[in-house]
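To assess whether ligand presence alters the predicted conformation, the chain was also submitted together with pyridoxal-5'-phosphate. Input:
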Amino acid sequence: MVPHPHTYSILQIAGMIPHIERSLVDGSARVADLLYDSRKIGSAAQGLFFALSGRRDGHRFIPEAYRAGVRNFVVAAGKVATVDYPEANFIVVADTLGALQALAASHRSRYRYPVIGITGSNGKTIVKEWLAQLMAPEYRVLKSPKSYNSQIGVALSLWQLDDAHDLAIIEAGISKPGEMEALRRMIAPDVAVLTNIGPAHDDGFASRAEKVDEKLALFEGVGTAVYPPGYLDGRPLPDVGYRLTWGEGDCMLRLLGHTVADGRTTIRAQYRGVPHQIVIPFTDAAARENALCCWAVLVAMGYAHETIAERMGALQPAEMRLEMKSGIRGCTIIDDSYSNDLYSLSIALEFLRQQRQQPKATVILSDIPAAVNEAEVYEKVASLLAGSGIGRLIAVGPALARQRHRFDFVQLETFPDTQAFLDAFPRLAFEHEIVLIKGGRQFAFERISALLTAKSHDTVLEINLSAVEHNLNQYRQRLPKGVKLMAMVKAFSYGSGSYEVANLLQFNGVDYLTVAFADEGVELRQAGIRLPIMVMSPRQASLGVLVQYALEPEIYGFGVLDECVRVLEARGVTDYPVHIKVDTGMHRLGFAVDDAARLLDRLRRTRAISVKSVFSHLSAAGNPEHDAFTRIQLKRFETFASALVDGLGHPVLRHIANTAGIGRWPEAYLDMVRLGIGLYGVDDAAGDGLNLLKTSVLKTVVSQLHEVKAGESVGYNRHGISGVDRIVATVGIGYADGYDRRFGNGNGTMQINGQVARTVGDICMDMTMLDVTGLRVTEGDEVEVFGDVAALAGSIGTIAYELLTGISQRVKRVYYY
Ligand SMILES: *Cc1c(COP(=O)(O)O)cnc(C)c1O
């Protein structure tokens, strides 16, 4: 039997990474999985945990990993008392990330088949996916999953190399100088590919030249270099064996021109003076460039132009998103129906565990294509599934059927193919469960996804959960160690949906959540949120509910205090956590600053409550004009909080900064900050230090196009009159969806196929008309309603907060990661 390519003994591993010392209680322990995040330990048995020191020091999570069953660790010198973990093996190194990379490099060096490394500013992922499609008939391709192209991601990708594949395509992404060298040493590409280089130099680079040089570091010493010289700004390529240049002008694969017809593009190019052409089923400029890049790589790999032309015509879009949507009969669907391999399966299962808002979980899984050593691959699949706590597995494909004995820990149904599954669909009774659909492209699982997904309305709000996570981390980086973070998820997480965002925040370890009303908190509890939750407006009638669901009230005056104490005492509850709000100048809710003594007196007379935190709210933290007032508020808060904390004599968290406060007032961080709109990508006071991503896009579609003659009006009240002939598009969103009436009559714009269209006439309840004269638009096209919310809000005299929270609940939310 061929040994499992992913299994090394810990003793072998120690030989693969430079280390200072090691303490191995069992040198023969097998290692198969690399772990670096204690939240993502699916199966611990054969795990090797790297304590990486990123934003959070991985060494802090060793106890948790040990409790979860991990017995092999790579740690930095002086960080861990290994005696505390009598059953574990430790390898002690100078630099844990370096050790992970050394291990990846050593593993990679055992494989002789070609490895293609791809870098560039844009298009890396598409080029990778397309190359995999184009070469699929000849090669069993391993590609790095999604966009795992970072210092850690590349190492984990390379760890997937095994005998089941005979070609690997790995993405390399960098954000600052010096990083590519580390990636190149790991990947050691046989073929290095550059897609393009964006015009601006990124934050991390001093100049464009520096950025170009950094990308070119991937090419150092490679056998074959495939690149577009037009992007190099004259910077020299390092020494390489063979070069294949592509692009306009003097290139080996030289672009001659292109024409677009019927949704397809014909690209003409000449190679060594001989003209050729390909047709691709896409029409955008990025697709043309990516296709030309793939063409050049295939030529370098020895493919004939005829073969290339034939395969280009059948290219499919590289679907790269893990989508979460609501499904039929109360199900939640995670749709990943375009690829299936061990690594992307582990990512999808991780997402499933993170978003466990339903008690029941089902996975619909296809065979893993190109599994050479079937027993080993499915043993691995079984261990991934076992670690993910699912209740039901629906397996589609002959290999899974043969391997069915491995899945005795779940309720199992097997089907020979997708059609058999579809035939049995009614009997499978999907209801109130979370369903992961994970299948290789050839299994056409999109048919399953269509059956399971509730009929989608045409108007949706798409929420990018990775962007929310990214924004959270941007703020966290700014906070000193020890400052806690409370995330505001009131008003359905500023319109972005409640438990999906809360799940993500919980998974990412924020300290507190805050909602406005008790029922929002109840919904989060019912969806399995365990974090402490503060409720800002506890109503008298809901105090019992608070206790029942362990929700912590904000106490903003003697009235609420007395009611709360009465309810708690009646139930015999003691030490119930509450939060004291003081009014330092907002004049909305809160005790007066000089109420401190009286409040203390009242608090001393009851054992029902225990003050967890004291806080206030800044009225104008983002507005420099009022900085003097903000300082007064901080001072007042300090006076009140110290009186209270001193008087209580036990630790109490103090907090006052909202998003703008985090951006502009480091002295206001205190013990905790309350992050709201910044999470959702909007922060006017963010300044340069923060790179926030847009988290949601509101979309609809064109329902109908009209030719409207000069002099004709459009819509109610005949406002939209013009002196010229126009083409008007009716789109499926109106003020009842949250598209403000003030956007009417040309005040609002939407985007269709990248083109800007203005509103015409009054906004209707469910529809809006746009002037699309001269634009490329057809019925059924997708329309982006809100992109840059802050700018749009300004144009009608409101703020992003109102637009975001005003998107009505009838607009379906689609989440992706
Ligand atoms: C909404 C709210 C926040 C968050 O404000 P942002 O400006 O969205 O960061 C913080 N504190 C309180 C009391 C709030 O009501």
